[in-house]
Amino acid sequence: MVDYFEERGINASEDADTRRARLESHIMRLMADFNLFEELGMPNQLAPPASKEVVNSLVEEKIAKSNSGKCDICLKEYEIDEITKVMPCKHKFHSECIDAWLSKTNSCPLCRYELPTDDKFYEDYRKEKKRAKERDADIANLHNSMFS
């Protein structure tokens, strides 16, 4: 005979945090399936700061020659032997400028490339948004292959 937990598919040995995280994931999925993010105005919500770990791991580059451009945040020219940080999208900025920027939001100021955050809710939202786009593309491909 199955017990209460087995009947409901609950692993009784899991800790409360693991169960809570799984429940949050199911809620996020439900919200995405019924477009509740848009209903709640979440697309207009500001993105949280980038993960400190990711910001600290950005590649640093030393400026080797003069006239090598300017920082698009503070608009000052780079000086020789100055340290800059390079984003994964290959845009570079003064270290202190990009650190201050990424402490407020998780995206590149030029192209809006998004870095990971420490906000689990926002990361789940991003995953669901990406999945929704992929589903729409798959449906369009299926439709086009059937009717063209």
TrEMBL record:
Pfam families: zf-RING_2 (PF13639). GO terms for molecular function: ubiquitin protein ligase activity; zinc ion binding. It comes from the Eukaryota. Gene3D superfamilies: Zinc/RING finger domain, C3HC4 (zinc finger) (3.30.40.10). It is an enzyme of class 2 (transferase). Residues 71-112 form the RING-type domain. It catalyses: S-ubiquitinyl-[E2 ubiquitin-conjugating enzyme]-L-cysteine + [acceptor protein]-L-lysine = [E2 ubiquitin-conjugating enzyme]-L-cysteine + N(6)-ubiquitinyl-[acceptor protein]-L-lysine. GO terms for cellular component: cytoplasm. GO terms for biological process: protein ubiquitination. SUPFAM superfamilies: RING/U-box. Its EC number is 2.3.2.27. The keyword Zinc applies. InterPro entries: Znf_RING (IPR001841), Znf_RING/FYVE/PHD (IPR013083). Belongs to the RNF181 family. E3 ubiquitin-protein ligase which accepts ubiquitin from an E2 ubiquitin-conjugating enzyme in the form of a thioester and then directly transfers the ubiquitin to targeted substrates. Catalyzes monoubiquitination of 26S proteasome subunit PSMC2/RPT1. This is E3 ubiquitin-protein ligase RNF181.
